[in-house]
Design a protein that fits this description.
This protein is of the alpha/beta class. The protein is built from 9 helices and 7 strands. Strands 3-2-1-4-5-7-6 form a 7-stranded mixed sheet, with helices on both faces.
Length: about 250
């Protein structure tokens, strides 16, 4: 991400509707998260400013890593420990060390030259039948200045992400899009931006869509994603501006 984006994430990650709603969706996919298990070991790879680590902590021992020193600085401001500066393409952990690995808005990054290699690295770190949790941006036609600000290389679709997971040795358990209800509005906004030429603005002017939202609107948008989380708990959504996936490391034959 652009350096200024880390401060925005740190300031807004706890309360902003997008992050709150996404957390509800992520947790809805995990049937075993109904109770804490301190024997469970979790790695949030590419942990950013770290609030997700705090969210996952009730469900096990959580470790975090990120290559950005800015990200780790904000993690430390949150009082987090078990942090390592590391590239997700080559992680300094023992084989089979984790029950869960999460990659949240990580695979899409432009510095990742081989996303299948990153998935294989996650596969190596997981115990047999370990769980991989992915959330990322969806549909390449939605690319915008936001993607430039967060250094996005790719936006995924189910038909592009599933083969990569299978190639890396995973079995897809669940895969759904989300931000389904607001998807038509997102499409209209992106089309309008293209007509106005905003996608071609200079790098210096590029910034993400992340910004404070009035409290009432923030609550309403969070409720929309909460509604989607209740649906996703039972079935997949057919479209949305983001994609979420739960995959399992295949048992050795």
């Amino acid at each position: 991400m652009e350096p200024a984006e880390y401060q925005k994430h740190f300031d807004l990650e706890e309360s902003h509707w997008w992050f709150r709603g996404r957390r509800q969706i992520l947790l809805a996919l995990f049937p075993f998260l109904s109770k804490a298990d301190r024997s469970r070991v979790w790695l949030d790879a590419g942990c950013g400013t770290g609030f997700n680590i705090k969210v996952f902590e009730p469900y096990g021992r959580v470790f975090g890593c990120d290559y950005s020193t800015d990200a780790l600085f904000f993690c430390q401001k949150r009082g987090l420990s078990n942090l390592v500066r590391a590239d997700v393409q080559c992680l300094p952990y023992k084989t089979g060390a984790f029950d869960v690995v999460s990659l949240l808005d990580v695979l899409y990054h432009k510095k990742i030259t081989d996303d299948v290699a990153v998935l294989r690295e996650a596969h190596r770190l997981l115990k047999e039948d370990g769980i991989l949790l992915i959330a990322d941006s969806a549909f390449e036609f939605l690319r915008s200045a936001h993607d430039r600000a967060v250094h996005a290389r790719e936006r995924y679709r189910r038909k592009t992400l599933k083969p990569k997971l299978e190639k890396a040795g995973f079995e897809v358990v669940r895969m759904s899009y989300f931000n389904f209800v607001l998807f038509p509005l997102v499409v209209l906004v992106r089309l309008a931006e293209r007509r106005e030429g905003r996608i071609e603005i200079s790098r210096r002017a590029v910034q993400s869509d992340l910004r404070p939202v009035p409290a009432a609107l923030n609550a309403a948008l969070s409720a929309i994603l909460g509604f989607e989380a209740r649906i996703i708990k039972k079935k997949n959504l057919p479209w949305g501006s983001s994609i979420v996936c739960l995959a399992r490391k295949k048992a050795s034959v």
